[in-house]
Structures are given as C-alpha cells and as structure tokens.
Write a structure and sequence with these properties.
The structure is a homodimer.
Chain A (H helix, E strand, L loop, with lengths): L16 E4 L3 H8 L4 E4 L9 H8 L4 H14 L3 E7 H4 L6 E4 L11 H13 L6 H10 L4 E4 L18 E6 L6 E5 L15 H25 L2 E2 H8 L11 H18 L3 H12 L6 H14 L9 E7 L2 E6 L7 E4 L4 E4 L12 E2 L3 H4 L14 H4 L3 H11 L3 E10 L5 E7 L1 H7 L5 E6 L7 E7 L5 H13 L9 H4 L1
Parallel strand pairs in A: 1-2, 4-5
Antiparallel strand pairs in A: 3-6, 3-8, 6-7, 9-10, 9-13, 10-11, 12-17, 14-15, 16-17
Helix pairs in contact in A: 2-16, 3-11, 5-6, 5-7, 7-9, 8-9, 9-10, 15-16
Chain lengths: 483, 483
C-alpha cells in the first residue's frame, strides 16, 4: 500500500509527490514510475471531531502532557520490602483485590472466578472450590476491589488475598509506593484461573518459605534497584511484559548471595533459588509495579490527555486518564491473537485479562517489542512486525523513555505516554503483548499473543476530557476535579 | 557508493540496470533517474588468480566444505568437569601454554610477557616478576606452547600453567574434548598482561576455592549444556565474544543450586556466586572451548578450504585451514579500533591478542554482532554497522549455523565456516570483536574494539591449498597429508 522507498532516496529528484491516506493514488503514480513518498495517514475515529477540537484547544494540554512525560520518565523503582498483603495493604479476611476495572462475581469471567475460588480455599474461607464459588455468588461478606485502587497491580486475574506476600516497590525520589504479588510460574497457576491442590500448595509454600526468604534477603541488601534491571533487560531481548528472561536472571543475581547468607539452611536456599531460576516470568511482578509507579506519577494533572492505566478484568478493558481522575472508561475485552500451548486453540481462550498492560502504559511490553525480537516465538508474528509495532507506537505517545532504550532502533527511547487525542486522531490502538487464560475456570494458561483495547474507550475518554476542557479556566484545579 | 534501493522494489520496472563494482556508473545512472541495482563486487586479492583457479577446480572442495559445515554446525558442547591443567592437560612444572600461533619470549609482546611473568610467580618459579622475566629470557627449562596444540583456547594472552583450573568441555556425540581456563574478570588480570599481587592472589583463590567449588557443582549436576546456553544468549543480546552477559547469567542459574548444596559453608557459596555474578564475561571461557569443539570437528578434511582456527599471540595473527593440517599462516597482528577505558588511548594498545577469535571461527563474536546491537557501547560503532557486519560475513562463509540464530535477521543462522577462497575472491576480511590489552607488560585491559586479520594470510593459505590441490587424486588421503 505504502512505499518502501526511503524518503532520503527521493530528495535529489524533482518534482516530488507526497501521497497521503489510502494507497490508490500512490499505486497509480508508482505504476507510472513517478517517485512518491506515501504518508500513512488515517482519518480520526468517527464522531470525535468536536471533542478533539475542544481538547486540542485546551491551553493547559501541552504543559500538562509535558509534565506527565517528565513524571513518567523520571520515576524510578526500588524493591524495598516483601511482606504479606494483610500487613502492607491492610486487607482483612474476605477482602480480595482483582485485576482490571471494578467487577462483581456475576459478570466475572472463568479465570477470574477460578482465581477467586482458589484464593478463598487458600485463605481457609472455603473447603472446596465449589463451596468457594457458592459463597462468592452469595456475596455478602466477600469484598472485591480492583488492585489499581490500592496502588497495586496483578498479572492476569490479579487476585490478591490477605495471606499472599507482596513485593513493595518505592520511588526513591518521591517515596511513592506500589505493590504486586509474587509470581507463581506458568501453566496451572492461580492467576490464570487454576485452583487445584497443586496451585494451593504452591501458594502456601510461597507464603511460608518464598516470601519470608525474599523479605530477609531484600532487607539485608537494603533494597534492589529495579529500574536498573529494566534498563539492562531491554538490551538483553526482554520487553518486560511477556519476555522477562534477562530481568529474572538479573534479579536472581542480585538476590542470590543474600538469599544464601540469610537462609535457614542450604536446602532452603537452593529450593528458593531453583524456584526463581525456573520461572522466566518471575521479574514480571517487579516490572509491573515499577510501571505502576511511573504511570501513577502522572495522575491527576488537569488538562492532561495521557493514559495512566490500562487494565482488564477478563470481561472489561478499562483505561484511566490523567486529566479525568479515577474514572474508568471501559469496553469489552478482546480475545488475543497469538500462539497456543499444547492442544489449546482460540476457542479455549478467555478475553484479555490482567493489570499487566500497565507495562505498555509506561512504555514497555508491546511498546518495546523491537527490543525483544525473539518474543515472536511466544506471541506469534514475524520479527519485522515486532519492530514495526514499536515504531508505530511513537505516533500515539507524547514522548520517549529515557530509561528504556531499544538498541536496534539506535538506542531510541521506547514510545511512552499514550495520548488519548493521538489515539483518536490516528485510529491506531495501543499494542499489548499478553498471556491468554483458559476461559473455563480451573484451566490455567492456554497461550500468549497480541491484543488491542476496544476502540470505543478512547472517544469516551476524549469526551470526558472535552467536558472538563469546556469549563472555564480555574475550574479544573480544585480537589474535586482531581478525584 | 552502492544503491540503498531494495532489489525487490525494481522487479516490476523494465529495463533494469545492474551495476557491478565501483560506484561511478551507478551514480551517473541514478543521477539521470535510471533505476539501478548495484552489486557490491570487489576484485580478488592481487596475485591470487592462478591459485584461486586451481583450488576452485579441486573436485573434492564442494563436498569437503559441506562436510566441514555439517561438522561445525552439529558439534555440541557440555561442561563435564573442572580440574587443574596439570591433571587434564598433563602440564608439568615450567610448562606454559599461550594464545595464538607459536612464539618465543624474544618476540612476545608486552601483555604476553606480563602474563607469563605472573604465571611464573603464581607457580612459585620466581619470587618477583622481574626474576620471572630474567628466567623466561634465559629460556632453557621453560617451555612455551600454543594452547591450540593442546585442544585448549585461552582469551587474550591465554597463558595456562599447571596449577590453573580448567573447564573441561565434551561433545556428547563424538567424545571430543576442549579446555579453557576460568575467567578472572576485567581490568587488572593476568590474561591482559597484569601481574601485580592482586592478580596472583586472585589466581590462588581461583585455584583453591573457585575451581574446586565448580568441580563439585558440575559433577553433582552431571554436566551443564553449554550449547543450549549459546543458543539462548544470542536471543538475549550476546554475541559470545565481547558480550557474554546473558550467557554468564544463564550459567550462574544452572550452577547456583548445586554450588549451594555442595559448598563447605554458606559464606563460601555466597563468595563464589558473587564472584561469578560480578563478571559479565565469565561465560566467555565456556563459549570459547565450545567454539573450539565445533572448529576442531572440521579439521583435516582433504580439499576443504574452511578456516578451523584464528588466533593471535599479540605479535602474529595466525590461521589454520582444514585442508592444510596444522600449518599456521601468520602475519602481523593489527591494533584494534574501538573504545578505551579511562585515560587510555590508541597509543596504549597492544596489537590483537588471544585465542578468542575461535568464536568468530565458529560463527559467533563479530559474525553474530547483529544479535548484540548493544555491543556498540563496548566496542564502538553504530548499531546499523553491527548488523551490517554480520550480514557481510555471509559473503565469506560456507553456510549458516543451526544452533546460533539472529532474531533481528528473522532467526537466520549466523554466518559460519570462513572460506579462504571467498575471502580471497571478495577481499572481505573476517570481522573480529576483541578486548585490547595495554602494550606495556603489567598494564591490564585498556579497551575493546574491532579488528581484522592481516589480509596476506589468506592468499598464503590459498597457495598452500593450491599446492595440495595440484597433486594427483588420492595423494591427499594419506595420514601424512593430514598432519
């Protein structure tokens, strides 16, 4: 459709023809041997012209978006502690956090239900998953709340219960904190909706051995610089969402001497090191809260059109935007397109689920795929598509990361800070790499692939921005407008 | 000089002009808006026409080179033991191995002399480096021999003495073995020609703690699959010569649980893990003997024009070729072009030194730079040059690796098996990434960069191949021709 010719190749030839939009004119000219330069232009999303005009005219927007970019790209993350959710999040018995925007049991998908059922058994609130399901359906004394409402992010179902241990991350410059549970590994695991005895046993071991071991090691080390690992892993083929191999190894290298020195026995140390070393996604649960710290730093800037959260609960895909406070703009979560494990196929896949799209929100994951060409073996597609995915995201972001660089793009910073107005103007949706959970509760992981948000949430967010932009200057600065 | 236009862009246009060689015709046509496809052709090296004709006409050559490629690309490496050189190489007191082709003290460069002096002190054959130098200069009871003559490779000076511990690698399919010393880290280290007390102390700790610890761990693991690590590290931004970050982390992950379980104390285990974890080049000394196993598998094939060793002693650069047995073709080692540490500059650098070019010989290092774009921060140059370096090496190699793939080139295997005839026909010299030693004995590392072999060694090897090709059929198959 569009020319493969590098623009520079045309600079010496006159006259030049620049074609814009659909390829008909471009192809016709090229068939007549007329050199052209094609611009990949798309019309704005339908019905958004008035809102776009209003938001783009908001005089606060340029400075607000600059500030958001500065805050996102200058956020830094240290792992400062590992502790139970009851302690650091104040969760009480019967309180559960989950991924994505708010949802109740009735509308919850299979993997979200499966994870909640498993967590009920793990917490001793039910003897069997079936009993758990009945109690969850009855509601009453069970409380569900999004992770994002508690400075927390959770991959896939993202269920957090009081006895689970959490990574505690802190921005050393601001003191801001973010939390994430410990990664269980792949396959039959709670976050993918599995709840069998092996899942519950692993969670118990994680709470009695892994968590406490990590806590003593992290405290002995006086913290671990997670931002430094993020910067390095992008030069080592990771994108921080579906590929965390280098990150996990770099973390293990940091932790191991302290784990050995503080372990109760050599066997205990070896067991913990084997568990972490056997899970190439272990670092995901540190990259996510680091991304959360970055995105949260850009919240609540009046007039700012930058997305500060993208999250899915398996039913709805929701975004939050800096200039519109805690409002969720939601639409139906899509089924990812990708590669499947074993005999699983597209019919087994649940729609998109998890808070892990916080990585894309902060310039990682699908936005950093060019740094991780080998990821196509896990999520599908060709290498040139992975590189093109990153390149295309510069069109919908306000700037580039300083911390996260893509070597193959000449160390260009990853596209960072999704701008609602640019998404609406171009129709280009954020690229997200993601795992796929089985849609039947109890199944676990069935594959991994690529997915986009539902398009309509961006015009909806734009309309809310437009409504606020229409108010007279000064009306946005009160605390009410920030909530 | 040559067109940037992709060839495919021209297939629909008639007439087509294909230009070959120097760019004058090509530029003139393009200035008149005539589409051209330029071939990057170079004349053969001067004076080689007759030898080229003779060798290219050798009827054994195609099958011989196919066999060499098969042997190189199907070789596999396991780390099966760690043991002193005295034990596995049979080195006695006063015997030293060194990198590169044969050399004596008289012609040895500063870093080679420095490493030998340090090794003398380490072995208790001299009390001071000065005493060691005097004894080495006197000769007599001191014996120097290339590593390559003992199935061994050594980075930089590559000095091996009887008390040093060696990695023992084995090809599980052939039982063939190769050996390499343990990596000391960077900066002031023996292999870069430093010999101060801290160098000798570190070597003592490596022989009394590190080596024995690795031995028990490797034996408990029943070996470590080095080929699997090589395959993975190329998808993680390593090229296996100057960038071994991922390889070192992957190795550490394999070893750590066994190191913990077999350690005499938690402190000892933590010390060993810290040492390995603190050295991002630790894996180099495993990748090199793995490459040695691959290259050695292709030795002594009659009529074969494939290079089976490239090695430098700091004075001479030498190659060995499959079809010409153990003959070294040597020329003056060049000074690398690259980046310098601290206040060092080009005037401080010794000419090219080390057996580490065995990695390029087996399709890694400079031949795999496209897999490791971040290496330009260490050796200099731009990312597109790193990618171009790998791409250009396909012109001088007989085929592609099956084990080693470059994600950014669509998982194409690395260019593998340097063909003397192709080097001579194209004038393209192998790209080598390398460390730079200070030229004054005792200095240590001063930088890292890129270097080529001296061009004349390839016509010399070609002449020797031509001399053998001229003999009547059957004359090459006796054992005498293989030696």
């Amino acid at each position: 459709m569009t020319s493969e010719l590098p623009l520079q190749g045309l600079l010496g030839a006159e006259p030049r023809v620049v074609t814009v939009g659909i390829g008909l004119l471009d192809s016709a000219l090229r068939a007549q041997a007329v050199p052209t330069a094609a611009l990949d232009w798309h019309p704005p999303m339908p019905g958004t012209a008035a809102d776009l005009a209003r938001v783009l005219a908001d005089p606060r927007r340029p400075a607000a978006n600059d500030l958001a970019l500065t805050k996102i790209t200058s956020a830094r993350a240290r792992l400062v502690d590992v502790a139970p959710a009851a302690e650091v999040l104040g969760l009480g018995s019967g309180q559960f956090l989950h991924a994505g925007p708010p949802i109740d049991w009735e509308r919850a998908s299979g993997p979200m239900r499966g994870a909640l059922m498993g967590a009920m058994v793990f917490e001793g609130l039910a003897d069997t998953p079936e009993q758990a399901a009945a109690r969850l359906a009855a509601g009453g004394d069970i409380d569900l709340d999004p992770c994002h409402h508690h400075a927390t992010v959770g991959p896939m179902a993202g269920v957090v219960s009081p006895s689970m241990w959490m990574f505690v991350l802190e921005d050393p410059n601001t003191g801001q904190r973010a939390f994430c549970s410990l990664n269980e590994g792949l396959g039959k695991v709670l976050r993918y909706g599995a709840y069998g005895p092996e899942v519950i046993d692993r969670l118990r071991w994680m709470s009695t051995v892994l968590g406490p071991s990590l806590k003593t090691a992290v405290r002995r080390l006086d913290g671990v610089d997670i931002s430094a690992i993020l910067a390095q892993m992008l030069a080592m083929g990771d994108e921080g969402h579906n590929r965390n191999r280098a990150g996990s190894l770099l973390l293990l290298r940091e932790l191991t001497p302290a784990l050995i020195e503080t372990a109760t026995s050599a066997e205990a140390a070896a067991e913990v090191v084997r568990f972490i070393g056997g899970n190439e996604h272990f670092f995901l649960n540190l990259g996510m809260p680091a991304a959360k710290l970055a995105a949260d730093a850009a919240r609540d800037i009046p007039g700012c059109t930058v997305v500060v959260a993208m999250a899915r609960n398996g039913t709805d895909f929701g975004i939050q935007v800096s200039g519109t406070g805690d409002t969720w703009f939601t639409g139906p979560a899509q089924v990812p397109d990708g590669l499947f494990l074993g005999d699983f196929g597209p019919e087994d896949a649940n729609p998109d689920i998890g808070d892990s799209a916080i990585t894309e929100t902060a310039g990682m994951g699908g936005f950093a795929m060019a740094a991780a060409p080998a990821i196509v073996k896990f999520v599908g597609g060709a290498v040139h598509e992975a590189i093109a995915a990153t390149e295309s995201m510069y069109a919908i972001t306000v700037g580039e990361s300083r911390l996260l660089q893509v070597p193959v793009l000449g160390f260009r910073g990853t596209p960072t800070g999704i701008d609602v107005t640019r998404v609406v103007r171009t129709g280009l949706l954020p690229h997200i790499n993601t795992g796929m959970a089985g849609k039947v509760a109890g199944t676990g992981q069935v594959g991994a692939g690529l997915v986009n948000p539902p398009a309509q949430i961006f015009p909806a967010a734009l309309a809310a921005l437009a409504a606020r932009a229409a108010q007279p200057p000064g009306a946005q600065t009160g605390p009410g407008a920030l909530g």
